[in-house]
Amino acid sequence: METNHDHVLLTSAELSYMWTTYLSDSMAICVFKYFLKHMEDEEIKSLVILAMQLSEEHIRFISETFSKEKIQIPQGFTDQDVNLEAKRLFTDVFYLKYLKQTAKAGLTAYGRVLQSTYRQDILDFFNTCIKETSDLNTKATQLLLEKGLAMRPPTIPYPNKIEFVHKQSFILEGLGRRKAFTGSEITNLHSNILTNYLGTALATAFSQVAESNKVQNYFLRGKEIALKHIKVFGSYLEMCSLPLPMSYNQDVTESKESPFSDKLMMFHFSLMIYAGIGNYGVSISESQRSDMNVDYSRLMAEVMKYSEDGANLMIANEWMEQPPLAANRSDLAKG
To answer: Which domains does the chain have, with CATH numbers?
Structure first.
């Protein structure tokens, strides 16, 4: 039986998450349209079409919900933000790796959203989103494995007996450095390297095609930061003789013709930055090495400063839509 939601207002969480989802999916549709224009691999193409269809369904639901609630629909991104006639900027292999990484980010985001969602229609929507994203992630993973492109985390020996930690140096390496890493620490190092590799590839591509010199320099600075972070994380894996994943930069062409507006590219990069900050926070919570947590903390601070500079650049160009805000009671009192 269909439930009537007319008397149940959207909470701040539900409104904000749907607003952000609208912006993200409108951007994704532009990106996928461009990807499809140059794609040759039919298997990868079918996944990109699926991803675009999911984004279109999300836009449709949110638009209908906002209209019923008399909420202003965001401008988001439109056909004006994409040039489908631009030359190929990425390889088909990049498209598949991109899908894998964005599906991973989607699973993390939707999982967080569900915890704060209560209205049944919105809960159903985000439950559907997480299931669809999980299916997309599975298909992308299977195709990466079939094509020999999957970059799996390293393996570690299976435990063959029960052991307990007897020294505080397990956490405080200054009292006797712990050379072996836990499985969670290795997984997060590997994952953060992959995320930063995607960032360097996009920064390389976007810096080649950006129209504004300030935007171009912003992407080049982001590339330098990502490469530095990869070096830090890689040094930990090398410390225990574990392999590093491969870079994505070989999947960027030499095209200098921009397929996207500077506004879209800046927004895309900001989404990756926010996801990266979240990943570092999770990595800190799952690490039991004090030296590693110090590195995560200082690298996170660097990314947050970079994010702030990006936000200021977007504001200066009037590219940042204002998100839903709480009422300013002091202003209301003043009339």
So the answer is: 12-146 (1.20.1260.10), 171-316 (1.20.1260.10)
